[in-house]
Specification:
The protein has about 300 residues and is α/β, with parallel strands linked by helices. It is built from 10 helices and 13 strands. It folds into 2 domains: about 220 residues, Rossmann fold; about 70 residues, Alpha-Beta Plaits, CATH 3.30.70. Strands 5-6-7-3-8-9 form a 6-stranded mixed beta sheet, with helices on both faces. Strands 11-12-10-13 form a 4-stranded antiparallel beta sheet, with helices on both faces. Strands 2-1-4 form a 3-stranded antiparallel beta sheet, covered by helices on one side. It binds adenosine-5'-triphosphate (ATP) and magnesium ion (MG). Adenosine-5'-triphosphate (ATP) binds next to strand 2 and helix 1.
């Protein structure tokens, strides 16, 4: 690690008045796995597509091993492998023929085709027409194609969205094996916190085209000064007086469910104050939970949104 394979500086992408990507900078080191985490419309796909050369930035610079799409298109095709958020295959081709077609672009042989089909667990389906594959099997097919040519930079746009838990685990295992080899850097976009936590060295949280936070899981959580959470729901709407005079860093309230999260510095110090306030304001607590801040809490506190699942 330590050598940047990708450097993104001050990149913007506008679609008319929509600022899809609004001034982002980050770099990825060799062998590093990065998660781009963000709600719908955050700008994740636009970001990866600019790195892939599918979209051109409105402003800013993207360099992959020092090269850029304006001057080194041919070389860059060999340095990058990818799977798109939605891949359209040719329905009347069989699984192996589809992989073979992509393999031919890279001059790879039939043995490699069979190998990647085996890695993603589609050997039984190798003779099936693509139109007869399930949604999850198509995603595995897209991953097989991304794995084909051992590129130093791989980009996967939501590789496990919509998969059942078993299939998701299988894909995680494949990517973990790839990580152990240490010669591929990966950027994956996801809505799943667990995926980002499990697979990735660093997490970049995006919303509305901007990077809100980035770092290792520990860095993200400790940057928030080891904050803690008191979470509760109440029978009725919560009176504002409940929060008066409390030492709360942030309050996240869901008016529909009467569920509230208080981000506090210390549960030990704050909980007695909180319970006293509950008593004084005659609020009926339905449940009460105290815990350390998680990535999920951090995400909601940064974006005000849950990740769409
Ligand atoms: N070709 C386009 N023309 C116009 N607007 C676009 C285009 N592509 C993306 N956008 C807009 O840019 C914003 C970012 O979209 P993008 O697809 O990058 O989000 P995303 O984070 O990948 O979301 P999702 O999680 O839903 O896949 C959205 O507001 C989207 O409507
Ligand atoms: Mg997307």
């Amino acid at each position: 690690m330590g050598v940047p394979i990708l450097e993104i500086s001050d990149v913007y992408k506008n679609f008319k008045e929509v600022k899809a990507v609004d001034g982002i900078s980050f770099s990825v080191n060799s062998g590093e796995f990065i998660a781009l985490l963000g709600p719908n419309g955050a700008g994740k796909t636009t970001t990866v597509e600019m790195i892939e050369g599918i979209q051109k930035p409105s402003e800013g610079s993207i360099r992959i091993m020092g090269l850029n799409w304006d001057h080194h298109e041919k070389k860059l095709h060999n340095l990058i492998s990818l799977s798109l958020q939605e891949t359209r295959f040719i329905d009347k081709l069989r699984t192996w023929e589809t992989v073979q077609l992509f393999a031919s672009f890279y001059g790879l042989n039939r043995a490699r085709v069979d190998e990647v089909i085996e890695i993603v667990g589609l050997t039984e389906k190798r003779k099936s027409f693509v139109e007869n594959l399930s949604g999850g099997q198509r995603q595995k097919l897209a991953l097989a194609i991304a794995l084909l040519h051992d590129a130093p930079l791989m980009l996967l746009d939501e590789p496990t969205t919509g998969l059942d838990p078993t299939a998701r685990r299988e894909i995680w295992d494949i990517l973990m094996n790839l990580k152990k080899k240490k010669n591929t850097s990966l950027i994956l976009t996801t809505h799943y916190m667990e995926e980002a936590e499990y697979l990735c060295d660093r997490i970049i949280i995006m919303d509305k085209g901007k990077i809100l936070a980035q770092g290792t899981l520990d860095e993200l959580l400790s940057a928030n000064n080891s904050k803690e959470i008191i979470e509760f729901s109440t029978k009725d709407a919560i009176p504002d007086q409940l929060f008066c005079g409390q030492d709360v860093y942030k309050l996240i309230r869901d008016e529909n469910t009467n569920r509230t999260k208080l981000i506090v510095k210390s549960i030990v110090e704050q909980l007695p104050v909180f319970l006293q306030k509950v008593k004084e304001s005659n609020v009926t607590l339905l449940d009460l939970e105290c815990r350390k801040l998680t990535l999920d809490d951090l995400f909601i506190s940064l974006t005000g949104k849950h990740l769409a699942d």
